[in-house]
Design brief:
Layout lengths: L2 E6 L6 H12 L3 E6 L3 H4 L2 H8 L10 H5 L2 H7 L3 E7 L1 H9 L5 H8 L4 E5 L3 H5 L1 H12 L3 E2 L3 E4 L5 E5 L3 H12 L8 E6 L4 E2 L5 E2 L6 H12 L3 E6 L11 E4 L3 H11 L4 E4 L6 E3 L20 E3 L3 H6 L8 E8 L3 H12 L3 E6 L9 E2 L1 E5 L2 E4 L3 E2 H16 L1
Parallel strand pairs: 1-2, 1-3, 3-4, 4-5, 8-11, 8-13, 11-12, 13-16, 16-17
Antiparallel strand pairs: 6-7, 9-10, 14-15, 17-19, 18-21, 19-20
This protein binds cytidine-5'-monophosphate.
The site of cytidine-5'-monophosphate has 13 residues, from helix 13 and strand 16.
Length: 393
Amino acid sequence: MRRILLIVSGSVAAYKALEFARLARKGGFAVTGLLTAGGARFVTPHALAAITGSRVHGDLWSLEEEVQAGHIRLARDHDAIVVAPASADLIAKMAAGLADDLATTVLLATTRPVLVAPAMNPTMWAHPATRANVETLRGRGVAFAGPEEGEMAEPEHGLGRLVEPPALLEAVRAMLADGPLAGRHALVTSGPTFEAIDPVRFIGNRSSGRQGHAIAAALAGLGARVTLVSGPVSLPDPPGVRVIRVESAREMLAACEAALPADVAVCAAAVADWRPETEAGAKIKKVAGAPPPAIALAENPDILATLSAAGDRRPRLVIGFAAETEDVIAHAEAKRARKGCDWILANDVGAGVFGAAENAVTLVTEAGAEPWPRMAKEDVARRLAARIAEALR
Ligand code: C5P
């Protein structure tokens, strides 16, 4: 059984650490809790002990522990260390290499993978000191999950919320490459493409990348090695995922082909169907009195169809999306045949899904159409990832 050391530091979000510990145990991990002095003000050792089913640590100066070099044991005896929530203070101490309590001493003494899930006020997260500390830690191989954007306790809105416990567990599994997709390579496309008109103008679309990024995170959360080829989006990279940023459809196709072989490909990107036939080398000037320029369009390559027809490099399972406003299932079935892919996730975009948090999809396979209830895009992603794991088993 995999073992996690969960370090809880001082933040209002500490209550979510309990939910994470519960989920992690349910997911087959053994969890040991460690509370910093600040953490112990938000969560009691009793609650953490009850939920982890094991003794909670906290005191560097415990005689009983030190007889057995307790901090060294804690640092070595776990497969991963998860710091959640991680306060700005604890992140600063980690970056500086301080070791003035049990948590910081363990973090300095460990050689195990460390995952940090920050939670703090958005101004503290944005502070140059915190930015520099996070970069320092990333440079040393520390993994980060979140923070997320949203409502803070203050109340205030911004980037600083602790990631939700299921996403944190995905990040742990991604870091440990642990789960039913361990050893598999998944290729995911996400976001829009931008097709250049000239050096400053482009044709784009409103895709946010939320669904594709959530799919990449969910696949990594089942242990897959994931390559995410993403058009321009304003989302953070999913933890544990290799992200390749592209702009145009042709760049996206080249990046996908370079990423092969893969066991599964999920094409969730909203690829532009057309691009300007030629890209002007210099900014097109507006000339007074002259008619607006005409932009001739050329057809873009179809990435989903190309991957589906990639011969011996074809991923075993190729999955596409179909955004439809009417006859959703009939169109999806036709698209599955036309593109040569295995599954289509059809979504009714009449229901307004672009940029939204939820999605209503129907999974269309050779066995038929299976409507899924409307749910969060992260849950669509997890359900799809579970189905992929089943199919590749
Ligand atoms: O043909 P349509 O755009 O409706 O097909 C949607 C599906 O095809 C999506 O999975 C999308 O990612 C993929 N696609 C693609 N390359 C294109 C156009 C669409 O991969 N040029």
